[in-house]
């Protein structure tokens, strides 16, 4: 499995309850699939209703929230089989215990991952011994989410009472990473984004690239904080109005923020300060700033790379094409792109990453497991792979649950898991970061994380066209681009390891001159590499933690 594209690997079958499937319908095609009576869908992301488009002769009863059903129908209008299978869907309200048959109950517990998403609690009294299964689905177990779980009646017997989960299926999308790595809370990441947007000049156009269900909260908070703005939601959010009209449950509407999303659709100002669009490029105008979420970014890196900059903060700066400049910093070998606004004499990034995650770090998943009075008897990861297993990720080592079904199966699938947990002895609680030599895995893992490791360009057709233009105007950048990026990353690490000043760079075509506020308007400097010899390397190094 490609660790850069981690998605749910759970195959649907529930231990101890053989007639139930969760989030995967593929098993229905097997000879044993005839014994399945009920299928649950935790939320509307496509890796959680795999196989639903198959032409089943006899589809079991499907149970999910109304919001999830509507979202799946909306994004699969052309799938006849899926629409037909969803006719068997039975809708369930949040925190409502539904009796599927005598002595078999299910409860959908809101987990705030996206519109309509839920954890699924199954209680089976049909055997001599009661069986309790909790399936988390995808979830981000931040402190406020954990606190909300303490108030739900279906979880209270396991948190405060003597009941114990027989099986916990846990979202482990990012849990395999370094056990000391943390991800800042989403509210803080959104707040940083809002403050950065406010620094841009009036009339700036922004484009949110993330349209996956779950990012609505980002749009809403930006809209609430920057009221004098115009929003073009395009086709990416056409489902909003339909859900608004179709969901009668007040609890489901309030948890999903559907009412507020509908208000966002209607917010168009006559003289907006900023313009926002969502999804594909629909805005016209010369300068559009792309906004994309990330998890692998420290606060220091965020401040050094994405805040507006003066000219003397660059080690080199040149105009690449049509008012777009490429600049380098002391710790950044590969140039990043900026727009230059003469009125403010500042450079503003053309691509901005904001910290936002829909999945938990290891520490957050551990906090969730520790929420229960007794550890679960068994623990199974919803996302796993051979790579993570050989990196030391097993349930006993990470969560203290011995002899789990997963550990036994993974041992037979992948061989011995004999790698000790890799901990960072120099950091007891560090923010998640990218491409650091101390990180457990120096990779980006968000499934829809489209920036490369050093935050340069969004990988899409539009930027390929920009790249062609840049190659035509700057012939020295032609050929061997990938090899050059690899070399530059290596040089960056060597520079920090050797504590070398950037002025020692002997790269050709560099002109070392003093920079001032008039420099960029001079013809002799345009379209040339310019390096500013700086003397504050130690000050910057003290704020960074790459080695």
TrEMBL record:
Keyword entries, A-Z: Exonuclease, Hydrolase, Nuclease
Organism domain of life: Eukaryota
Instruction: Offer one example of a GO biological process linked to this entry.
Output: interstrand cross-link repair
Keyword Nuclease belongs to the record: yes
- List the InterPro entries hit by this protein, alphabetically: RibonucZ/Hydroxyglut_hydro (IPR036866)
* MF terms (GO), sorted A to Z: 5'-3' DNA exonuclease activity; damaged DNA binding
User: Among its keywords, does the record have Hydrolase?
Assistant: yes
- State the SUPFAM superfamilies in the record: Metallo-hydrolase/oxidoreductase
Q: PANTHER family recorded for this chain? A: DNA CROSS-LINK REPAIR PROTEIN PSO2/SNM1-RELATED, PROTEIN ARTEMIS
Q: What is this protein called?
A: DNA repair metallo-beta-lactamase domain-containing protein
Name the source organism.
Answer: Pichia inconspicua
